[in-house]
């Protein structure tokens, strides 16, 4: 999944409709919250159960900015990035544009 993440991020960065801040945010989420746990998994081997387990683990982490908060903000941002990246992989495979 790590190779596709880099390919996808390069495509997002090349999109003139995406802001630089979005690219920086996506890169940060991938580097800190997705790739350490899921990066070595091939896309075709990624299961909904594995993603759900990973997101649940992220959701249980305490917030660094707001230690007493009920939610930490990590899991929702990770969902956004993963959903976008995986949807792009499906579209790329369907269109024959190189998703693994």
Topology, please?
Layout: H1 2-14, H2 20-38, H3 48-60, H4 74-95
Helix pairs in contact: 1-2, 2-4, 3-4
Question: Would you summarize the structure shown here?
Answer:
By secondary structure, the chain is mostly helical. The protein contains 4 helices and no strands.
Brief descriptors of the model:
67% helix; 4 helices; DNA polymerase, domain 1; 100 residues; mainly alpha; 0% strand
Uncertain runs are none
- What count of domains describes the coordinates? 1
Strand content: under 5%
Question: How does CATH name the architecture?
Answer: Orthogonal Bundle
The H-and-E topology, N to C, reads as: HHHH
CATH topology value: DNA polymerase, domain 1
Q: Which structural class is indicated by helix and strand composition?
A: mainly alpha
Terminal residue distance: 8 Å
Q: Determine the number of helices (DSSP H or I, runs of at least 4 residues).
A: 4
Q: What is the strand tally?
A: 0
What does this structure look like?
- 67% of the residues lie in helices and 0% in strands.
- The chain has 100 residues and is mainly alpha-helical.
- It has a single domain, classed as DNA polymerase, domain 1.
- It is globular and about 45 Å long.
- The model has no long low-confidence stretch (mean pLDDT 89).
């Amino acid at each position: 999944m790590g190779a596709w993440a880099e390919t996808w991020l390069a495509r997002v960065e090349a999109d003139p409709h995406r802001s630089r801040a979005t690219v920086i945010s996506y890169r940060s989420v991938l580097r800190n919250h997705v790739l350490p746990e899921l990066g070595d998994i091939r896309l075709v081997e990624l299961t909904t159960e594995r993603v759900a387990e990973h997101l649940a683990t992220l959701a249980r982490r305490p917030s660094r900015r707001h230690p007493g908060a009920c939610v930490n903000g990590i899991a929702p941002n990770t969902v956004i990035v993963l959903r976008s990246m995986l949807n792009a992989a499906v579209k790329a495979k369907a269109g024959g544009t190189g998703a693994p």
